[in-house]
């Protein structure tokens, strides 16, 4: 059964001839699953034999190590090939517009550990790209609509913005959180005041979007006066992006929501992310690891390259992929 296979061999077997990965074996290569596959391969290669538990998830032999190294080299080749001229990455090869996956591609290149011009260009694009709601006319139009309807649709502030899924559209929690994580890694040693202000504004946006009671959903904390329901994925990404403020009440409230609700999770993807989020804040819950192995083995229909990668990252226990440094810099 698929669930009995280790995470890494599943990822290796899913790689396409062009060096990239699709969301599932045999599907078109795309930047998102390719980036997660590369981050997982890097993380596992940094662990010593036996450190990944349960044992079925560990790299089995030196032969597998060599295969993983070769697969990573081909994967990085795919990422470099599909980067656009402006430094961004499209969701898939052949598309002509950059998107949120630029953060993931830069993250993967950071894990490779060399200061390539392609990485620098990707970081520069993230620094410079702005969502539609950063524009005055966008915010003005929203205000006019609210006045005309005499009711504000959602409770979020129009003063804060971060990053969008696609250029020129509205800010959302997950792309904002992932861009923040990558830019913080890349700017660990130094950052211009302008870059710092951009990141601070995005942090304020995330806190503004937090659901009442803790946690985040994809976008709005309250719609037509009804509190939004938090979701695992957005909550984890926001918590990871806001780790420098770990002791803030909002972080602790959201962390408590995650710790209290992980037992209700029914998908290996969400459970892997929940485990990552809790570990990042020093919450070690052994029962999550057992539950994750069970779900991973049981739910074959939910098994994809990102799920396998997240599971490997969760079970590695190292979190090195969250604490990378810009090549050539310290901090």
Structural notes for this entry:
By secondary structure, the chain is mainly α. The protein has two domains: 180 residues, no CATH class; 135 residues, no CATH class. 52% of the residues lie in helices and 1% in strands. It is built from 13 helices and two strands. It has a two-stranded antiparallel ribbon. A hairpin with a 2-residue loop joins strand 1 and strand 2. Helix 2 packs parallel to helix 13, helix 9 packs antiparallel against helix 10 and helix 11 packs parallel to helix 13. The protein is globular.
Class from secondary-structure proportions: mainly alpha
- Tally the helices: what do you get? 13
Strand order of the largest sheet: 1-2
Q: What's the mean pLDDT score?
A: 84
Characterize the biggest β-sheet.
2 strands, antiparallel
Percentage of residues in strands: under 5%
Domain module tally: 2
Unreliable spans: 1-5, 48-60, 144-149
The rounded distance between the terminal residues' Cα atoms is: 44 Å
General form: globular
Radius of gyration, CA atoms, in whole angstroms: 20 Å
Topology, please?
Layout: H1 7-13, H2 31-45, H3 62-82, H4 101-112, H5 117-128, H6 136-149, H7 173-186, H8 193-208, E1 222-223, E2 226-227, H9 232-241, H10 249-261, H11 268-280, H12 286-298, H13 305-316
Antiparallel strand pairs: 1-2
Features:
single chain, 331 residues, mainly alpha, two-stranded antiparallel sheet, 52% helix, disordered N terminus
Quick structural summary:
The protein has 331 residues and is mostly helical. The protein has helices at 7-13, 31-45, 62-82, 101-112, 117-128, 136-149, 173-186, 193-208, 232-241, 249-261, 268-280, 286-298, 305-316, and strands at residues 222-223, 226-227. A hairpin with a 2-residue loop joins β1 (222-223) and β2 (226-227).
């Amino acid at each position: 059964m698929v669930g009995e296979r280790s995470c890494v061999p599943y990822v290796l077997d899913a790689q396409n001839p062009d060096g990239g990965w699709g969301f599932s074996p045999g599907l078109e290569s795309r930047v998102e699953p390719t980036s997660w596959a590369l981050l997982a391969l890097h993380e596992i290669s940094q662990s010593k034999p036996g450190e990944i538990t349960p044992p079925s998830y560990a790299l089995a032999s030196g032969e597998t190590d060599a295969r993983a190294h070769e697969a990573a080299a081909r994967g990085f080749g795919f990422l470099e090939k599909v980067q656009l001229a402006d430094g961004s990455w499209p969701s898939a090869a052949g598309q002509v517009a950059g998107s949120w996956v630029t953060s993931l591609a830069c993250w993967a290149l950071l894990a490779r550990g060399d200061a390539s011009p392609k990485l620098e260009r990707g970081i520069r694009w993230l620094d410079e790209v702005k969502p539609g709601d950063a524009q005055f006319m966008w915010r003005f139009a929203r205000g006019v609509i609210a006045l005309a309807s005499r009711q504000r649709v959602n409770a979020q502030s129009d003063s804060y913005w971060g990053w969008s899924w696609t250029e020129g559209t509205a800010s959302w929690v997950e792309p904002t959180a992932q861009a923040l994580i990558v830019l913080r890694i890349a700017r660990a040693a130094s950052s211009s005041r302008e870059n710092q202000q951009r990141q601070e504004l995005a942090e304020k946006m995330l806190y503004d979007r937090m659901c009442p009671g803790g946690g985040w959903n994809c976008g709005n904390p309250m719609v037509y006066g009804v509190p939004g329901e938090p979701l695992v994925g957005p909550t984890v990404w926001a918590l990871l992006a806001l780790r420098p403020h770990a002791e803030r009440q909002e972080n602790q409230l959201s962390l408590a929501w995650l710790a209290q609700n992980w037992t209700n999770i029914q998908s290996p993807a969400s459970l892997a992310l929940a485990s990552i989020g809790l570990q990042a804040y020093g919450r070690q819950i052994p029962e999550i690891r057992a539950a994750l192995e069970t779900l991973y083995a049981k739910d074959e229909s939910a098994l994809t390259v990102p799920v396998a990668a997240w599971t490997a990252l969760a079970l590695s226990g190292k979190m090195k992929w969250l604490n990378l440094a810009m090549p050539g810099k310290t901090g």
